Amino acid sequence: MDTIRENLPDFQRPLRILPYAIHKDPFPKVDPTGREDISTREGIAPGALVIGYSFSVYSNYYPDDAVKAFVQVFPDTRGVLLILKSYDLDNRPIERAALKVIAGDGRIRIYDGKKRLSIHEFYHAIDLYFSSSCAVGYGLNLVEAAQAGLPVTASGWRIAPKILVLRGVCAVGYDLQRVRDLQGHYAGIKNAVWSRPKIDELASVLKTMHDRFRSKLPQ
Question: Angle at CA 55, nearest 5°, toward 19 and 185?
């Protein structure tokens, strides 16, 4: 509530925060035909394990830790793909420049306003939703991925209990640290902190999911 007030200095009326009704309009389940169509169109190799993370640069949700965990588990593994989807990355030149290094790994794809992938197509393209968000909060994208039938991994810091009980949702440990505020959203807010998910725990979940995925493929 204090953060909202900080950004609405001229708003003097009472504020009321309502929980989002996550079951009122559930996200549709991923259907096999749609998944096959998207995989073919995007040139995703048959049998590849596809991990996805959608994030907003404006909201300071960076993909750094998802990439670190991915590279730690798969330093040179073939048949794996990490898709990073951001609707506002192309408007943030500093962050886009930093991600150019990541784009050098052919197993990592970046979709933004120039290389588009709708949210429905995104969930059809991936096998695991893997969030390295520094401040999950309510996390509507986690809800969407879980309702689509995907396994979901995210930091457990202040994640809504209604999300934690959803089928397939896994929370990992975290460390609290000072906010890395490239956009200036936290200017004037003293001692602002957020969480960084533990890389080793993210990597452990990713390895387990990979092993399970491979065990289900035809031998």
Answer: 75
Whole-angstrom Cα distance, residue 209 to residue 201? 12
Residues 33 and 184: their CA atoms lie apart, in Å, by 44
Task: Write a three-state SS string for 14-46.
Answer: CCCCCCCCCCCCCCCCCCHHHHHHHHHHCCCCC
Q: Do the Cβ atoms of 62 and 150 come closer than 8 Å?
A: no
Query: Per-residue pLDDT tens for 13-30?
Result: 888 777 666 677 788 899
pLDDT digits (tens, 9 = 90+) for 43-52: 999 999 999 9
**pTM (2 decimals)?**
0.84
Q: Which two tokens stand for residue 188?
A: 């004037």
> What contacts 170, CB < 8 A, 6 or more positions away?
151, 152, 153, 154, 205
Structure-token pair, residue 85: 């989807």
Residue type, 57: V
